[in-house]
Amino acid sequence: MTFALSREHETFRQTVREFAEAEVAPHVAQWDKEHHFPIDLVKKMGDLGLFGLTAPDEFGGADGDFTSLCVAIEELGRVDQSIGITLEAAVGLGINPILTFGTQEQKERWLPDLVAGQALAGFGLTEPGAGSDASATKTKAELDGDQWVVNGAKQFITNSGSEITSLVTVTARTGTRENGSPELSTIVLPSGTPGFIVEPAYDKLGWHISDTHPLSFVDARVPADHLLGERGRGYAQFLATLDDGRVAIAALAVGCIQACLDLCVQYAGERTTFGVPIGTKQGVAFQISDLAVMAQAGRALTYQAAALKDAGAPAKEFKQAAAIAKLYTSESAVTATRIATQVFGGYGFMEEYPVARFYRDAKILEIGEGTSEVQRMLIARGLGLPVE
């Protein structure tokens, strides 16, 4: 199997790059400063077809492959990480669970607006005491006649409180298994449901443009047919969702590394000390060379994993590739932003330069959709090691 991107993928890359440079780059510094979530941009992304890349034609999608989605996320992330995560979460965490596990009626009800970029959806998994340990989920959903009654709280939920958020898919305890472990299911809660409370947005270190909120549920009632997939299969569903998401996060991280490389090459050719460009100094040139290695290696790992997904590779093989890609690229992105800030010197510490924004944005890549520690655990298990 070859993992080289096709000519069509590279042509699509150029299309997204031109869009990002024209529609995102001129405004992103101000949006970041104001913590502004640009609804108009989201709708333009929808017009370009970015939210429907992997969705079937019957719901307005392009019926394309997962690799194309990764290309789009990388190119948006190369200009701004917040915009990249908005697309990643909208598709991977919003659309994908409904597309993968929903009934035909659920798909017809919710997907068209999500695919068109006229609406967004979130995925409510993380809680104050339950992140990597999803078995510690406290949110409960009890069946009362023909309705689910949901009580609990979620945190760090992307695309959950914007003006165009239409729903959040929530993991909840719907019972207890014979062995005493919780039965987890996923339930769709439309925005505006009484008892579904969107708390004020977080004041975050980075990703200032991204829409992120804690959520509360107080006797929030939805019809029984809002159960997504089979009852009790919520744990398996979110694991599958996160495997895809890890590769998409890797693509976002590659965009971050590439941005650092591009910015440093330009700056090192223009900034002079002692009468010569700083790029002539080995101490600077070698660091920038390391960025090039990170970008190329990270891109190779990411698109290898994406190709395995598109080829329908065995779940075990894909899971291992996804964990490796996510671990390497996220940690490399953090290192890349540190290097870029150092290359820029004092200017790198100033918010008017984009390396400062990338520096702030990168750290969450090592945490979201599975921490680095979780990725190492998964990789070790894939190697056959008896890791708990």
Automatic annotation (TrEMBL):
SUPFAM superfamilies from the UniProt entry: Acyl-CoA dehydrogenase C-terminal domain-like (SSF47203), Acyl-CoA dehydrogenase NM domain-like (SSF56645)
Location of the Acyl-CoA oxidase/dehydrogenase middle domain: 123-219
Domain Acyl-CoA dehydrogenase/oxidase C-terminal: 232-383
TM regions (residue ranges): none
One GO MF term attached to the UniProt entry: acyl-CoA dehydrogenase activity
Domain Acyl-CoA dehydrogenase/oxidase N-terminal: 7-117
Keyword terms of this UniProt record: FAD, Flavoprotein, Oxidoreductase
InterPro entries: Acyl-CoA_DH_CS, Acyl-CoA_Oxase/DH_mid-dom, Acyl-CoA_Oxase/DH_mid-dom_sf, AcylCo_DH-like_C, AcylCo_DH/oxidase_C, AcylCoA_DH/ox_N, AcylCoA_DH/ox_N_sf, AcylCoA_DH/oxidase_NM_dom_sf
Presence of the UniProt keyword Flavoprotein in the record: yes
Secretion signal, residue range per the UniProt entry: none
Cofactor needs: FAD
Protein family according to the UniProt entry: Belongs to the acyl-CoA dehydrogenase family.
Name recorded for this polypeptide: Acyl-CoA dehydrogenase
Phylogenetic classification of the source organism: Bacteria, Bacillati, Actinomycetota, Actinomycetes, Propionibacteriales
